[in-house]
Amino acid sequence: MSLFGQLRLLLFRSLREGGRNPVLAYALPIIIPLAVLVLVAKTLYRVTDLPGFPTDNYAEWMTPAIIMLTAMTGVGYAATSLVIDIQSGFLDRLRLLDVRPPALLLSRVLFDVVRVVPAGAVLLVAGLLLGTDLNEGVVGVVALFGLLVLWAAAYGGLYFVVALTTRNAQAPLALAPLFLPLQFLSTQFVPRSLLPGWVQGVSAWNPFTYMVDASRAMTTGPLTLAPVAKAVAVALVMLVVTQGLSLRAYKRAVGGS
Amino acid sequence: MSSSPAIEVHELIRYFAGGVKALDGVTFTVEQGEVFGYLGRNGAGKSTTVRILTTLLRPTSGTAMVLGHDVVSAPGAVRKVFGAALQDAALDELMTGREHLEMAARLAGLGKAGSVERAAELLESFGLRVAADRIAAGYSGGMRRRLDVAMAMVRRPDVLFLDEPTTGLDPQGRRAVWDLVRDLRDTGSTVFLTTQYLAEADELSGRVAVVHEGRIAAIGTSQELKARLGTTTVRVRVANDGDEGRIRAAVAPDAVDPYGERWLEITVGGGEAAVPAVIGRVVGAGAQVDRLSIHPPSLEDVFVGLTGTQIEASAGGSDNGKITAVRRGLGVPTGPGR
Fold it and tell me: How far apart are CA A210 and CA A237, in angstroms?
């Protein structure tokens, strides 16, 4: 069977399984971002009174960043499933059927990607209900979802590396709260100018900052090339590095063949 | 099918990290159409052998061929000719039996329609038709094992590896697996069966190999091994206390051991052929014998003789291959066996 055929079959398997475990697979990425968006918009709205704050609707400020956050809150499901396949011996069965490692890893990555789309859509609707304006229209929204799935694949890659290196199905779970510091050390809550100096420095090294900045450009605008190009470049580098490391860890995890 | 042996293993060695020798020079050949039993204690090297033969693990050195294909240089060709049910049924808990088989068939290149058909066929012949559309998480141990073996059969393999296929099964489940192996034997398939159940190997296998601490301790048909390495014993019970001495005197004294409650156990040197003479001497000893039973050597005796009696798997090799007079701890005599 061709690599593409294998990939399609394995992705279908993941999607079907996700359907049998919908809370973990599809609801989990939604819950925390939705809670954060609603709570923050209803409690911290006075933040916009700060001098230099670019908008007077805090929900509008938060919505694009929160959509990017969906890629980080439900992450790790696919990586955990892969470790379970290794532990149960199901992966050996697949190897005996000549399933190639890239098909195996990529099918899981794509599943992580698919899972964030409904989550992103729910958060977008919630944002609109809270008064977010989509100044960049349909083009901006399409670009936003493009960046969301790319970011999901890139950030999810981190969890594959951890899962395959430790070969522990619980490890991705332990790493799940990583999104918390990444949020605060980025431009998610306030513009860069309002961050303390040291956080400004750190945020430049935080890949999530670039996703937040680009997602704002794509929704509230203005849509310019620089933030988008930076975000795509950061996510692509992360994706290539994490998948490269995953493939290596995978080969080590399944043993000497 | 080629005329090469089904399995040919030469000086197979596999070391693991930390210098653990899982296999320390294993050589054997399995001809096409054989049901070959591969016996050993936990950790003896059974699964390592199977994982190398099924291309999942590379040997440190040595060669292994399946139907003439080298597992290291031509793993793809090897995978096309065998099926394997490895230790612990490897299932996806959230997939149904039918989905397992259809997916395996698709990956094996059977096409969509062909896969649906093959899956239905296998579900039927493995008694899983009723449970076909339930997810594996709800399957019993026996059903899981049957599904696992059914997946191994998707490609209609010429050689089938079954790694401890009946571990954890109830007697009915075990019988179902045994029937399957017999059917395969009758259709000329080669089966490589690892087990720790000696009765199973005795029942199903033509030849058996006993692997101990990474080496082959003995190889042959079960009859050969029993004749060569086993001991026949005769147990007699004297009617009156104090008559034990007469029996002891009539037979060689050091061949007789007390077995409790006026029972004596006589180790017969020279195999089963010597049994009538021994009984003749017992009868002529002048003691009143009210019970007598003959115990032919069992494969289990041979196995324990080869692999030791200690419960923990030995790290050293103190009793390596040494055959000692092994008493099975039956405690209470079971009376005449036959």
Answer: 13
| B159-163/B190-195 β-pairing | parallel
* Centroid of chain to Cα B33: 17
Closest approach of chain A CAs to the CA of B91, in angstroms?
6
Q: How far is residue B247's CA from residue B237's CA, in Å, rounded to a whole number?
A: 10
A219 in Cβ contact with A144 (< 8 Å): yes
Q: What is the DSSP letter of B326?
A: P
3-state SS, residue A130: coil
- Which chain B residues are Cβ-neighbours of A96 within 8 angstroms? 54-56, 79, 84
3-state secondary structure of B314: coil
Facing residue for A257 by CB, picked from B58, B88, B91? B58
Tell me: ipTM over 0.90. no
Yes or no, beta carbons of B88 and A9 under 8 Å apart: no
Q: For residues B128 and B114, what is the distance between their CA atoms, to the nearest angstrom?
A: 19
Residue A81: closest CA among chain B residues belongs to which residue? B92
Within 8 A of B89 by CB-CB distance, chain A residues are: 89
Task: Out of B8-17, B33-42, B316-325, pick the least confident.
Answer: B316-325
Closest CA to B53 of B8, B2, B4, B104: B8
Q: Give the pLDDT of residue B321.
A: 32
CB pairs under 8 A between A and B: 68
Phi, psi of B128, deg, nearest 5 = -120, 15
Give CA–CA dist B84/A97, Å, rounded: 10
Q: How far is A48 from chain B (nearest CA, A)?
A: 48
Asked if A89's CB is within 8 angstroms of B107's CB, the reply is: no
Structure confidence at residue A9 (pLDDT): 94
Between CA B110 and CA B126 the distance in angstroms is 19
Q: Cα-flanking dihedrals φ and ψ of residue A51, to 5°? A: -60, 135
CB within 8 Å: A20 and B135: yes
Using the Cα atoms of residue A159, residue A164, residue A169 and residue A171 in order, give the sign of their dihedral. negative
Task: Output b/e per residue, B277-313; b: 16+ Cβ within 10 A.
Answer: ebbeebeebebebeeebbbbbbbbbbbbbbbbeeeee
Q: Is B112 at the interface with chain A, CB within 8 A? A: no
Tell whether the model's pLDDT for residue A70 goes beyond 90: yes
Query: A255, B135: Cβ pair inside 8 Å?
Result: no
Residue A219's closest CA among A112, A119, A123, A113?
A123
Half-sphere exposure of B164 (CA within 13 A, CB side): 18
Phi, psi of A194, deg, nearest 5: -95, 0
pLDDT tens readout for residues B142-172: 888 889 999 999 988 999 999 988 887 888 8
Q: How far apart are CA B234 and CA B232, in angstroms?
A: 7
> Shortest CB distance from B151 goes to which of A5, A93, A98?
A93
Give me the residue from A1, A88, A95 closest to B106, CB to CB: A1
